[in-house]
Write a structure and sequence with these properties.
heterodimer, A: 123 residues, mainly alpha, Arc Repressor Mutant, subunit A, two-stranded antiparallel sheet, 5 helices, 2 strands, 71% helix, 5% strand, B: 163 residues, alpha+beta, Alpha-D-Glucose-1,6-Bisphosphate, Chain A, domain 4, 8-stranded antiparallel beta sheet, 3 helices, 8 strands
């Protein structure tokens, strides 16, 4: 990590590292449905508070989660911008590969039809 | 085909991107479509409007491959690499490089038979975070230009519709 602070690609690094863990993805999915305190997050995941807090720290460092105003509950909130940055990149890939696969489907349909024809000719 | 098939994209580590898609054809056909130049030229075209005038593959360990794409604006883009591991019809490991200033990635294709269908998985391994970041920036620029092209098309269609 560079001492000069986060460039957008540093943050992208942290975003991807944070998203690599299935529990953290599940926590984000839960927060997407609404803010929740650490205690509220413990229940559905059947994890101890320290374990959840550890995951939340990783998500906070990546800028994916922030803390709400309520001093007592400290509800966690999902932050959209870094997620959008990460998904924008993945969307570029997705778009290109979805187009590729659609054309591959057509090529394979043709190959299957030819194969059937050949099989029929043999019989 | 009436089922919606989407490409699943995941980042298994800091340096890898994996894309996965279920394809409605037996594995042997998918392998052929992926390793026969004349077939690759029909589908691995990238954004809409691109074509692939050159596709050469020396399909053996250490053998080279070379592809040239022609973009919608007439400009060309080329990629080169070599094959490292070939296990027909299930696994193909190759390297890929866009040009001298670009880092080389290692791409692993695996085809998993699922009855009469095939699960296609390709993992792209970047040599460093810097390399991945460079790809990110290009990807964003390309993605943006593709959407811009689409936008332009929509606008043109609207204009001609009015006249």
């Amino acid at each position: 990590m560079q001492p000069s602070g986060y460039s957008s690609s540093d943050r992208l690094d942290q975003t991807f590292a944070a998203l690599a863990d299935p529990t953290r993805r599940a926590i984000l999915a839960r927060l997407a449905a609404g803010d929740a305190s650490v205690g509220e997050l413990c229940q559905p995941f059947e994890m101890s508070q320290p374990a959840i807090s550890k995951h939340l720290k990783v998500l906070e460092r990546a800028g994916l989660v922030s803390r709400g105003q309520d001093a007592q509950k400290r509800p966690r909130r999902i932050e959209a911008k870094p997620l959008a940055e990460a998904s924008q990149w993945l969307d570029g890939y997705r778009r290109i590969w979805e187009a590729n696969f659609r054309r591959l489907d057509a090529v394979l349909e043709e190959m299957k039809a030819k194969q059937k024809k050949r099989a029929r000719a043999k019989n | 085909m009436d089922t919606t098939t989407t490409v699943e994209i995941t980042t298994p580590s800091d340096l890898e991107v994996t894309l996965a898609r279920l394809v409605d054809a037996p594995r042997a056909l998918v392998w052929a479509a992926w390793t026969t130049p004349e077939l690759v030229q029909q589908w691995m075209l990238g954004p809409e409007g691109w074509s692939m005038p050159v596709c050469e593959m020396d399909l053996r360990p250490g053998g080279a491959w070379h592809r040239v794409w022609k973009k919608a604006n007439g400009k060309e883009m080329e990629m080169r690499g070599s094959f490292r591991e070939i296990v027909a019809p299930e696994r193909l490991v190759s390297t890929e490089k866009w040009g001298p200033e670009w880092p080389e990635t290692v791409n692993t294709l695996t085809l998993e038979a699922k009855g009469e269908k095939t699960l296609v998985r390709e993992t792209i391994l970047y040599p460093s975070k810097e390399a991945r970041d460079a790809a990110i920036k290009t990807g964003m620029a390309d993605g943006a230009s593709v959407s811009f092209d689409r936008l332009q098309k929509v606008l043109l269609a609207k204009r001609s519709g009015r006249s």
